[in-house]
Amino acid sequence: MTDHKEGPESFRETGVVGDDRLDPYEIDFLPEFREGRGPKRPFVNEHGVLIGDHDYVSADSPLEQWSTETDPAIMSGDQWVHPFKDIGFHTAENRDYFERGIPPKEGIFLHAVRNTASAAKRPPEAEEPEEGNRR
């Protein structure tokens, strides 16, 4: 295994994939989105889990050892997402952006009738829903 120079220090490429051709889990990133993304090949993260091998079950994964004592935050962060082979890249919005350079439309993730921003980021003039209308 070799240390990868571009991504976080916890990424170690495994060398499992022997070439740089696209596989079914990748999209064809525009050149400006390829540089500095992190490892192209599968890598072992700081928890000993192989990421980007297309096998989403790993004995070392916290998901396979989950209990009421497990802090869900352990599964957050870039060390759990492959920078080239994440299934989320296959959405229409991400393909438009990363393959065609078309930025997402503003406002598409807004709730139709409620201000769902956290209180810390909510403008002071934003009204809270009446007690009976809260979910």
Molecular structure report:
With 135 residues, the chain is largely without helices or strands. The chain has one domain. Helices cover 10% and strands 6% of the residues. The protein has 2 helices and 4 strands; from the N terminus they run E-E-H-E-E-H. A 4-stranded antiparallel beta sheet has the order 1-2-3-4, with no helix packed on it. A hairpin with an 8-residue loop joins strand 1 and strand 2. The radius of gyration is 19 Å and the shape is flat. The N terminus is likely disordered.
What are its keywords?
135 residues, little secondary structure, 2 helices, 4 strands, 6% strand, flat
> How far do the termini sit from each other?
50 Å
**What count of domains describes the coordinates?**
1
Net shape: flat
Tell me roughly what share of residues is in helical segments. under 10%
Total of DSSP H or I helical runs spanning 4+ residues: 2
Structural class: little secondary structure
Question: What is the residue-mean pLDDT, rounded to a whole number?
Answer: 75
Query: How many extended strands?
Result: 4
Residue share in β-strands = 5-15%
Rg, Å, rounded: 19 Å
Residue stretches low in confidence (pLDDT < 50, at least 5 long) are 1-18
Strand order of the largest sheet: 1-2-3-4
